[in-house]
Design brief:
This protein is α+β, with helices and mostly antiparallel strands. It is built from five helices and eight strands.
């Protein structure tokens, strides 16, 4: 496993690496443990009932997403961040993310978002990024705001945030 980016929080090193199918069992264990919390916000969490379901999900995500990364603590996956729903004409896409409950509130997702911003704006020619969160998912919304995404509108049941490349530079 080769990290494409690393960052430190309180002297502890975290990384981002390409998602691989052999991570399925570790992701599955996190989803099992956090199913109730994840299932509130991510409909896919309730569909992952077996390790093979997670392998299938990873295969599909690797085909459907522009860029999908595992967030890791040492060599252990602890979450995912991705770019998806690319609109090539408008140069926009969405960022999706989730993180194991035991790692939330430490700044890991904030740092992961900063790395993803860099890749989206510099390597994928994206002009505008969006985060679409459930209105009541205050943790997701807080991370988006802290990472410099601007609240744009409510489209029930979602809160929509965006960041322009010109705001990031």
């Amino acid at each position: 496993m080769h990290n494409i980016s690393e960052f430190k929080i309180n002297k502890h090193k975290y990384g981002l690496t390409l998602v691989e199918e052999d991570m399925a069992a570790k992701f599955y264990r996190i989803i099992q443990k956090d199913r109730e919390q994840l299932g509130k916000w991510c409909s896919w969490a309730n569909k992952i009932r077996f390790i093979d379901d997670e392998k299938t999900f990873i295969k599909a995500a690797r085909q459907d997403c522009i860029f999908i990364l595992a967030i890791i603590d040492e060599q252990n996956p602890i979450g995912i961040i991705d770019l998806h729903n690319l609109d090539e004409d408008k140069h926009t896409c969405e960022i999706g993310y989730w993180l194991s409950s035991e790692y939330q509130g430490k700044g890991i997702m904030y740092n992961s978002l900063q790395v993803m911003n860099c890749y989206a704006f510099n390597f994928f020619d994206i002009e505008k990024l969006k985060i679409i969160s459930q209105i009541k998912n205050m943790k997701c919304r807080h991370v988006a705001e802290r990472a410099g995404f601007n609240f744009k509108e409510i489209k029930d049941p979602f809160a929509i945030y965006s960041k322009e490349k010109t705001d990031w530079e």
